[in-house]
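seq:
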Amino acid sequence: MTIMQTFSEVSISNMTEKKVHVRFSPSPTGFLHIGGARTALYNWLFAKHMGGIFSLRIEDTDQTRSEDKFAEDIKEGLEWLGIDWDAGPIYQSRRLAIYDRYAENLVKDGKAYWVEDEKGRAIRFRMPDEEIEFDDIIRGQIKFDGSLIEDFVILKADGFPTYNFACTIDDVEMGVTHVVRGDDHIANTPKQIAVCRAIGVELPRFAHLPMILGEDGARLSKRHGATSVREYKELGYLPEALTNFIALLGWAPGDDREVVSRKEMIESFTLERVGKTSARFNNTKLDWMNSLYIRQLPADELLRRLTPFLQKAGVEPDRLPEGWLQKVVELHIERFKTLADFYVQTAFLFTEEVDYDPTAVEKHLKKDGVPELLQETHSELSKVEDFDKESLERCLRSLVERRGIGFGKLAQPLRVAVTGKTVSAGLFETMELLGKEKTLRRISHCLSTFCKAGSV
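struct:
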């Protein structure tokens, strides 16, 4: 048994008596990424499952890249996802005296030493010439040869600590029992273990999460589309759906369930159930899951969440006829996948002018016989007094029956005329929501603009 194994076993034994304490410790050098959000979620779920503590730590020691706006975005993103923290946020840039003290003590003990570089004096840690081994909860035993790892700087000439040192000292000071993070940090672990040993403290348990890949198998990046929590929020994804989705990127509750409530996640979550293999981010599945969560929202709550997206498009829901917006939502509830997608699909209902699809116009409005058919349709619809879906259906079906044509011969040109596209919700319901005046005006516009049959 190696010295490291003995130390590890003692640490694990002692930690079983401690309250679980985990942390999410992002660097504020960019917006909260989906990968970071998953790491935060797994830490949060583990803490909740174990009745422990979840802390937020902002690792802002990189003075050239750290920005306050990114720190704020991280906090806002976590709050939006419903990931609350029990302690923090702790900012490393405000704890420099603590790192100084530990570094100086290591120098006194001969475990670190001063060096001169082009920027001034720095402190370098003396890496031990021995095997470093740890038992990763997800990946099992991992070994490193300490003799192959160079001594590394722990305190820079500008007085700021390096990542591996500050991270380790904070974990010690905070009493972190489990370090749950991405597998890109595996290479940092032997350095952090060596610092722990030099200080003479017990090790936390480590759990390194698998990478998140794009649908093409490459590491998830901006070329795959949205990657930050902020972007998904702006696209109209629900926090409940996004949380459910990223929870399943590497973890499963133990059955084939794909829709898992937060309560069920907390009850079922264990680090042992996190897989070793990289997870693929499937946008189609996320869209499906988001649409499912949208349909489950109570009507008033859905309207509340849609409001900012409508306002961004220039629509003020409070100025719409009472009950009208609710009918629009009910008609399209099975069709839109995100909150932003709702307006994209229904914009023609809110605007005076329609953005006509050129292909649809060419295919359906410029065919022989269409101008005459639409002109007769305009004439018949103008006679309808109660402009509801039942009356509209009776009117239009009577028209095609008299003409001896299938309803599709009228439906598609009429759909393009009133919506600008070939696909929409039910035609009669759509026309009812548009109202008589707007419906007739659009048919007239198409006749004079596209069909060359003269205005009516």
